[in-house]
Prior knowledge:
This protein is of the alpha+beta class and 398 residues long. The protein has a five-stranded mixed sheet with strand order 2-3-1-4-5, with helices on both faces. The protein starts with a helix and ends in a 16-residue tail after the last strand. It is built from twelve helices and five strands. It has two domains: 3-222; 233-381, Reverse transcriptase/Diguanylate cyclase domain (Alpha-Beta Plaits, 2-Layer Sandwich), CATH 3.30.70. The model is unreliable at 387-398 (pLDDT under 50). It comes from Mesorhizobium erdmanii.
Amino acid sequence: MDTGLYIALLNPTIALALGAAFLVLWTYQRHRPYLAVLGFSYCVSALGFLLQYFTLPIGMSLTKLVSNICFTFAGCCLSGAIVARYGRKVPFVGIGVLAGGGLASFCWFLFVAPDLTWRVLAMNFGFGGISLLVAAELRPVRNNGPTEKILFVLSLLSGLNFFVRTLIVVIAHGPFTSYDGFYGSSYWTTALLSHALLSLLIALCLFTAAALDVMKALKAETYTDPLSGLLNRRGFEERAEFLLQRCAAAKFPVALVLADLDHFKALNDVHGHAAGDRVIADFAAKLRTAAGARGAAGRIGGEEFAVVLPLTDLAAARLFAEAVRTLYSAGGVDGLPPGTKVTASFGVAARSGEEALQPLMRRADEALYKAKKNGRDSVRLSYERPETLFVPEPSWTG
Length: 398
């Protein structure tokens, strides 16, 4: 087997291996369909490379057309999957115009005005445009993390590779008049090697992104309460500590609100645990909406919830608690009999000085206890200062 054939088989082998790896990964993460699209695109590109070197019984011209259709389809799938992975809207129209224009030009210079050099330019310029379009879509998210930045750079390099490398090689060693000696030319060699390198780098970056997704999901499961969708106690305390540190450094106020569903045990006994679960989920949804992106809400006990509110003093935190209390007590809960009223009690404390989380929670809990003791469905405040060291007064008896 000659060296040219070894080089020709390099890309399909790499592409098949990467495609299989992405498809296997997708079988374990079915909720991420972009992985299946990536696997499919790499497998299709492998077929395209094989058909560049081996001719089907339909003839050379039609074989080259099928090969470039595979390349075009694979490029569109790969580009769309990368953009979709980062939550961007896939530019189907842009990708379709660039891919369709490149393929239409290829067909023109294959069947109407046969010219190998222009076929090379048409396909490469189409793929280069798609690569730069992907880079443009990744530009707003390129600073979100290392994988976004690397893929943005790789998309730019891929676009430059299709444009600049192709032009340089064609100008230096072209034009190409036929396929005789084409697969031993500097163009084909540089195309195969650059494609192999960029394919590996892009795939490794996407594998890293998929691994980070799994780690992020595992972390979310560790810190999230599955019933309410809020932070669990561990997750809430870590987030609250972080927000307290940030607010202390910037000298910003911060408040803590504790909430407890009233008569929850009785509700469970009368209507069943399924109804109790719906009550918890409904209250959590309202609490999450009220807290917004600025605050951190968590379910820290069976029917007990907590919210840390940065940039919020005691008066503003009281308004927050009253708003949630009023909203919740005024509405019904799906699945409960009509007219069934569910309420909650609230304790509010504003941080004083460099007060730590536990003393702050203790004060808010004391205020919550007063709300429960004084009739429930109410908000009580803690006006107390943080706990201080008790120093006994000197005795004057002697």
